[in-house]
Structure formats: C-alpha cells, structure tokens
Specification:
Elements: H1 8-25, H2 40-57, H3 61-64, H4 69-89, H5 105-112, H6 115-129, H7 132-140, H8 142-159, H9 161-164, H10 175-198, H11 218-251
Length: about 260
Amino acid sequence: MYAWNLEPTLLIGLIGQVAAYLVCIGPLRRLFPGSAAVPAAQIQIFLLGSLTMFAALVSPLDTLAGYLFSAHMVQHLLLALVAPPLLLAGTPRWLFRPLLQLPFALPIGRFLTNPLVTLLVFNIVFIGWHVPAFYDLALRSQPVHIAEHLSIFATATLTWWPIFSPMDELPRAHPLLQTAYLFFQSLPSTILGALIAFADHPLYPYYTGVPRIWGVSLLDDQQIAGLIMWIPGSMVFFGVMAVVFIRWLNRGDQTPVYERT
C-alpha cells in the first residue's frame, strides 16, 4: 500500500530528464546559439518541477492512487497543474531553439501552442480520462495507465505554454488574453469536480472492488476527490491569473509577463 514505484523505465526517464537539463545548461551550453548562464533560482524551479513528477509517479502516492480516488486526483493535479508550469518556467529560452531548425517544426509548434488549441486539447484529454469507462480501464491496465499519465502531462505542458513559454519564437499570449484564457481553463475542471463531489452514487466501479483504507468510505473518498479537482484545481488557475493581471497593470502593456533574466 505504501510501496514506492521503482519501475526502471520511469526512473530512467525522470533521472534522464534532470541529467539532460543539467548537462545542457552546463558543459554543453556553448553549443546552443545565444545561450547564457542560467540563474540559480531558475534551475531550482526546474528541479522542483522534476521533484513534483517524482512525487506523483514514484512516491507511495502512486500506490495509494490504486486504493483512493482522492489520491489519484492529487496525482493528476500534480502532473497537470504543478509540474508543467514549473518545468517551463525553469527552462531557459535558448534551450529548445535548435529544435526549431527541424523541418516544419515552427509551424507545427505555432499550431500546437495556439491558446484555443491548447485549451481544447487539454480539457478533452483531462475530462476524457475521467469518463468512468476510460478511468477504470486505466486503473486495470498498466499500459493504458501509462498512456493516461503521459497524455495528461503532455497536453498540460501545452496548455501552460501560452503563460510560461520559454521561447520567443513561440511566445506567451498577451496578458489580457492570458487572463481570459486562464479563466476559461478553470471552468471545465470546476464543473467536473462539482459533478463528482455532489454525485450520490459511486461513479467509478474500480474503487468498489478494492479495500477501503484509512476508514474513508467510498462516497466520502469520491466527494474528497471532486473537491480536490474543484477547489485546489481552480485556485491554481485563478492564482496565476491574478498574478498575470496584476503584473500587467503594474508594468504596462509593453513588458512581457514573467519576464526572464
């Protein structure tokens, strides 16, 4: 129940992500056009994002998610709302620039990071995985569960791009557009969380067949999960929205939001 997920492929992927980042901003930095020293605070932000992924996927939270819907919801929010913006904010603007030299990379990137596209794709994927049939399938099949987490993380990274983009070529949206964008991003998870929280019957058959732990009943666990999606989930969007709007008011229209050094 409290076991760590020490699946080798997962550990190699997470360690490789951190190692590649540190090598690229360190010994290999000279190979990147326009590169500059990365501030310690920015490095720490990236490492915190990686640590968040470790907590979501490797720590006992991953095992608890098989027993508690609420634990699984925390896992999903860490992968969707915490890790991606930290990783983007911790990435220097010059690091991904060589990728744009690949054929068609720039037009494809512009399409994938268009705010309307990212809003629709993320919410379709996130809500889709919470349809009971797909949700139960993910918990009963390890390959499907991996696909679920990968798709949530990948589309969440795209959905935060208009706010935390590290690339001038694929820039952040205008602050007023960011404010509206974050507001609309908060609505689907708020509505879905409320529907889950107020349901008067079990929505996910998988959890009816697993042992109840910590004395939490099936419906109480479901209600807690809905509240986690509803309140902390929407608070993340509204918190970032408030920062974006206040910074725009203070700095004026010409200064990029979350300007990097």
